[in-house]
Amino acid sequence: MVSALKYSTAVPVIFLSALKYHVFPDNWINFYRPLWLLSSFLNSLYSFYWDITRDWDLSGFTRIFKFTKPHLVSQLIYGQNWVYLWVIGSNLILRCTWTYKLSAHLRHNYLTVFAITALEIFRRFQWAFFRVENEWNKMNSKQNVQMQDISGEEEKLLNLNNHNV
């Protein structure tokens, strides 16, 4: 349900973008445009939050760069702190740019639409790498827990076989 909420926040943005062509310019500027901006802002922020906390599991912003406590985040594949700062910052900016593609004044500027579309492709490509990293970390942490359980059981079995004659 929470994931569906993320996608449902895009509906007002798309609806209001389409409505631009069917209302008087004064109505658009005074009433609908602020609604469009608000819904775009909410959708972008919620989608950014979802990427960081759910898809990439980087929710512990304060723990991302502190490796003193073992945590899923401390097993980062890419390792360099600046990579994570870059991906968080660029994801926020690129999440906000997709709404401009829906803007009426950009429809006829093909170079701008192309650039925004190329940036969205880059954002999704970048998203995929960190999503895979998150799944990799989850799989490895489960395997480590299972391996610890197995080695604990093996020790118990070996200790049972120590008989004094």
TrEMBL record:
Keyword Protease part of the UniProt annotation: no
Keyword Mitochondrion: no
Topology versus the membrane: Multi-pass membrane protein
Pfam family, one: EXS
UniProt keyword terms in alphabetical order: Membrane, Transmembrane, Transmembrane helix
Subcellular location: Membrane
Record-level GO cellular component terms: membrane
The EXS domain, residue ranges: 1-164
Database matches in InterPro entries: EXS_C
Protein name: Putative EXS
Species whose genome carries this gene: Helianthus annuus
